[in-house]
Specification:
There is one protein chain. With 225 residues, this protein is α+β, with helices and mostly antiparallel strands. The chain folds into 2 domains: 81 residues, no CATH class; 140 residues, Methane Monooxygenase Hydroxylase, Chain G, domain 1. The chain contains 5 helices and 3 strands, in the order βββααααα. The protein has a 3-stranded antiparallel beta sheet with strand order 1-3-2, with no helix packed on it. This is Neurotransmitter-gated ion-channel ligand-binding domain-containing protein. Keywords: Membrane, Transmembrane, Transmembrane helix. It is a multi-pass membrane protein. One of its GO terms (molecular function) is transmembrane signaling receptor activity.
């Protein structure tokens, strides 16, 4: 299943049959050696978890495959499990740490107008996440199904982008409200306007960090569901 990449399992089948002999003219016998150690079959990327062999009759009689309909078929199935260590160490953990720390840096202090330090930090995180997306794109199968790993990294990118947008827009809104208070001479409201902003800042921190953690849990949960 490509959806749970890189925690996926693949079924690799090798089918053998004869195009020249009928089933009563040839005998196909498929079996696995009893002393075969499947732990030595895989490589650094794939681990073979099981090997299945079977013999069956090919039941096909459509046009050009009339003769094959009377043939025997031998099938070997190798069930492989991908080793996800490369993707965990290079993409999943760094993406989580970058996004988590970036959100913490954006909302841990008061939001001020034209805070270039936070803006630059967010853009740096976006560029780093874009590099990770490029690494994933080079290694994933090119199918119409989007793997969960791509969804995970892209979601982190959206979280950081949304957080940057908020730190740009929210101080402008607060500044606009203060201007309205000054125009209306609402001194009491001006005196207490910082309290709701501080609470909103803390709420945004909790909400965004919650989404970062939820995104990671969705990736891990989808792999083992």
């Amino acid at each position: 299943m490509v959806t749970v990449f890189p925690f996926d399992h693949q079924n690799c089948s090798l089918k053998l049959l004869s195009y020249s002999f009928y089933r009563h003219e040839i005998k196909l016998q498929n079996a696995i050696f009893e002393d075969l150690d499947i732990s030595t079959v895989g490589n650094d990327e794939w681990e073979v978890t099981n090997i299945i062999s079977c013999n069956d009759q090919l039941n096909s009689s459509n046009g050009e495959a009339v003769q094959l309909g009377q043939s025997l078929r031998s099938t070997n199935c190798d069930i492989c499990e991908r080793n996800p260590s490369y993707y965990i160490a290079l993409i999943i953990i760094p993406s989580f740490i970058l996004t988590f720390l970036c959100v913490a840096g954006l909302f841990s202090s008061s939001l001020i107008v034209d805070d270039l330090d936070k803006f630059c930090m967010g853009l740096t995180t976006i560029m780093s996440t874009t590099v990770m997306i490029g690494i994933v794109a080079e290694n994933i199968p090119k199918t119409k199904i989007i793997p969960n790993l791509i969804v995970y990294v892209t979601t982190n990118l959206i979280i950081v982008g949304t957080a940057i947008l908020i730190i740009i827009v929210l101080p402008k809104i607060s500044q606009f409200l203060e201007w309205i208070f000054r125009c209306c001479k609402l001194r009491c409201a001006r005196r207490h306007c910082g309290i709701p902003m501080g609470m909103m800042n803390a709420a945004l921190l909790v909400i965004f960090e919650g989404y970062v953690i939820k995104n990671l849990l969705d990736l891990v949960g989808g792999a083992f569901s």
